[in-house]
Amino acid sequence: MNELRTGCLNLWEVVAQSIAMLGPTMTPVLIVPLMYASAGNASWLAYAFGALMLVAVALNIRVFARRSASAGSLYEYARRAFGSRGALLCGWALLWAYALVGVAGLTGFAVFSTALLASAHASVAPILPLAGCLLVAFGLAYRDIRLSTITLLCLEAGSVTLILVLFALLLAHGKTVVDPDQLTLRGANLSGLALGATVAIFSLVGFESATSLGEEAHNPLHSIPSAVILSVIAAGAFFIFCAYAEVLAARGLPTALDKMGAPLDTLADAAHLPALKIAIDVGALLSSFSITLAALNAGGRIVFTKSRSGLFPRALGASHPIFRTPHVALASFAAVLALVGGGMILGGIAPLDAFNDTATLGSFGFIAIYVFVALGAPLYLRRLGELRPYHVAISAFTLGLLLIPAVGSVYPVPAPPTNAFPYIFAGYFILGVALLWSRSGRIPEREPEPAAT
Length: 453
Hints:
Layout (H helix, E strand, L loop, with lengths): L10 H12 L3 H14 L3 H23 L7 H10 L1 H36 L7 H17 L1 H30 L5 H4 L6 H15 L15 H31 L12 H8 L4 H34 L18 H20 L4 H34 L4 H20 L12 H16 L17
Helix pairs in contact: 1-7, 1-10, 1-12, 2-9, 2-10, 3-9, 3-10, 3-14, 3-15, 4-5, 4-14, 5-6, 5-12, 5-13, 5-14, 5-16, 6-12, 6-13, 7-10, 7-12, 9-15, 11-12, 12-13, 14-15, 14-16
């Protein structure tokens, strides 16, 4: 049996998949200080620019999502634009992106679980919570996609609510919401803003993962494009607010925001709200789990689709006879997450360093994917006879924006080990070409378009 459970997910359950992959809680908890180190008082503007960039990407994704739906996500979209060989490269980049973001979720779970245990004067080896997170996530993904997405929706709604409550109390404690330094971009410069836009991309990637639910969503030609647009706009607005509020709340504290190891804990202490610290850490823990589960859902379905197309062994394209989930593909993808994440921790890499490294490395895969989509959208429309000048303009605008994080990742040259990351991804990409190019002839160059109804 190789069919999934069709039409079982409503719009909000599909949105939950994309929001969970973004891991919105992780941005104020771990990434805003990094943004502040790059963009300073322009941090909120850098997030606004990053959101604009990915809204442009989302408009290109919408071209495909309104006309076709499958479990193959952007891999299948690339096949409709470029044929099997172009799709091969896009799918290879997708597997990199979802695998490394999944490992980032696992290592983030290890970071916050050990921190919570330390606050209770207990300790555990980080590999144990990492393994537990992966086993529970796999169990949910294996059992029922609807159960998975409802879990994601509840976890992310809870953790985001905690963050918003904290910031509301912090702003009330400060007795003002007006920060002239941020509103006038005091001390900011263009190079810092460009570097900040690159950091913003790292927060926003993954919003497109709802496209992997094309076979399981109800009315997918409506719900998938709606989920993609809604998730990137909602996340962008949340990150802009968090950056502004966090910079304002940290104003005047003895430790600068970019030097805070646990910024929300520090801010809660400064506002005399210590009771929120544990709640925020629990929210971050649950958000890390959500990232892992969302990556497993999306990555497993990419493996499932590629196997049905002949690029991977056919056995990976089986679906469970009762649960109708891609159980074999999910198991193989979970094994990859276990090998990479477990290998890093057992190899002596600190969980926080592993989180930062894998999240950054995964972003290169997403940037490559978004380039494929922006290039492919007008080609696809031209083949359908639906291309209009504004489609070409949106594509060109998107590609121009994507140059900023691409160039910003290599110049100015980042500090080690980040300076090596673009070249590691390039090596992986070349390896994929060498390993899979000969197999691309096993699938048809194109398939008939489904009716867009």
